[in-house]
# Entry
Amino acid sequence: MGWIPDEGKGLPPPGVVNRNSFWLGGMGWCAAMLPNAIRVMFSVHRQVLLTTIGWFLGYHLTKYENYVHAKLDREMNEYMKLHPDDFAPKEKKTFAEIVEPFIPVR
# Structure
């Protein structure tokens, strides 16, 4: 049992390059660069390690985020199916009905 229940296992996996993994990978790289700003060449292993850890955490954060949003969407759709009178389709208006009539000013 992980932090995503079994029903979340059916979701498609997020892309390897996504905003969370990119951001946290960059933050890991910055964290590796800060203490050794002078000795950059000697800390390449630390840069790679912290960037990889940040990328991994960002990927799994995106995976959890997708699960939470899918769960909320499912609950909202169930509610809409149970209460169709609250979500009646509105009549469609043309653009001319929405815009005020044009009166030129001279």
Remarks:
- Residues 16-83 form one domain.
- The radius of gyration is 25 Å.
- Residues 44-82 form the longest helix (39 residues).
